[in-house]
Amino acid sequence: MGHLTRCLTLAGALGESETRSCFLMRGHAAGLAGLVERDGHDLQLLPDPDVWSSGADGDGGPHADWLPTTWQEDAEQTSKAMDERGPFDWLIVDHYALDARWESACRREGLRILSIDDLADRAHDCDVLLDQNLVRQMDTRYRGRLSEDCKQLLGPRYALLRPDFAAQRRLLSGRSGNIHRIVVCYGGSDPTNETAKAVQALTSLAVPWIAVDVVIGMSNPHVESVARLCRGLPRAVVHRGANNIAELMRQADLSIGAGGVMSWERCCLGLPAVVADIAANQVGALTALADRAAAIYLGTAASLTVEALASAVRALLHDPDRVRALGEAAFALVDGEGRSRVLVAMR
Fold this sequence. Notes:
Blueprint: H1 2-16, E1 22-26, H2 33-38, E2 42-46, H3 71-85, E3 90-93, H4 100-106, E4 112-116, E5 128-131, E6 151-154, H5 163-170, E7 181-185, H6 194-205, E8 211-216, H7 223-230, E9 236-240, H8 245-251, E10 254-257, H9 261-268, E11 273-277, H10 283-291, E12 296-300, H11 306-317, H12 320-331, H13 338-346
């Protein structure tokens, strides 16, 4: 969902300058097609094979299992789609299983390529490389993986956030550090139900005066169990598929959640956060945020106990100075104007 969300954000920004976008997605992602079409973009689904055959040639790269087919077949299908629907000015790719080989295979005269990456673990053949993360040694992490004339957009100042985050940022009136409202959000699906763990931690604190907004995605399989747990919190509200997450974050005094694009959404609104990673690709950014004292990072969600999470939140309830400092450090990292900077680079 994070990958799709940031691509939708960029496509929306392009649309404001009268540039049309067409999304190429694989057939197994058909359930997300409505999100693309809702925003007025074209869509074409690439057919999946009958049998999942990612990396069948033995040379699919470190994340070949993200594709149901080989990168060669994906490049052929993508090229065919572009020939049928084009011509296109830009090809934007956001997929861990695709690298310089795929990008080279898709190149054609007059086409420029923007690659969105978070991992810096493979080469790219692109004109612009976007990595919106905050990690150690950011300026050198793509050394040897890009051509010399590739323009690099590195760091959270290029974070692709929806415009409502910048709008809510302008409405902020400062944070006191006192915690009266907490927002819990672990992304679109939360398959391991980290949301329940957070609700249990807050229930154990026995602070009935604190309001809690529990945000879960439409694809979350644990809706009913989370709703039952929330009955133990007098002022808890469950928001399923909320489209006002920016407003909820602005109104909150503390957030509990994971990494990914939510890290930069929270920073944009100066929202102090207690976080755990739910995927290996979140570790670097969350570590860097902790280094900047812009979040409290508790490690991997799978090994985080309810007791440890409750203890971290309890400490903040009694330390408003630290809460305020966390928010100020986060606020300084992201201003919500990243998509505009990316558009300038593309132009």
